Amino acid sequence: MVVVVLVALPLATANAKWLAKETPMLPFGVYFQGLQGSVVLSLTLDKSGHVTGTSVLRSSGHPALDELARDAALNWRLSPDSVLPSDISKGRVELITFKNPTPPKQILPDARPYWAQLR
Question: Which end of the chain has less Cβ packing within 10 Å, N or C?
């Protein structure tokens, strides 16, 4: 099981009412690699609360996790009454943390996945 923690960073987001904020789903390959990390995103919104753009302010160190976070955030929607003028012009900062408390077990003892053998 993979745990993804969504945290709002600035104080302005403390009262934000998200209408749609689904947790990013991890593809099996990403889960199997046991990737973990935190991504800090800047989200620009329109007046209706739809996320119109994302940019990575701080990478998790894994491009796959960064991309998953950006793709998930594009489907989020904030309540229009929670949208601040700065959300439209500068953006809203959000933290997404990917944790893997139960990493997958090796299929064969001492087996190395193919991506580790390529190095």
Answer: C
Q: What is the CA radius of gyration of the chain?
A: 17
pTM equals 0.72
CA distances from 47 to 53, 90, 92 (A): 13, 13, 13
Give the domain CATH number at 48.
3.30.2420.10
Average pLDDT value over all residues in the chain: 81
Which string of DSSP letters, residue by residue, matches 58-107?
E--S-HHHHHHHHHHHTT-EE-GGG--HHHHHT-EEEEEEEE-SSPPPPS
- Domains identified in the chain, total number: 1
Q: What angle do CA 69, 73, 77 make, to 5 degrees?
A: 160
Low-confidence stretches of the chain (pLDDT < 50) are: 9-12
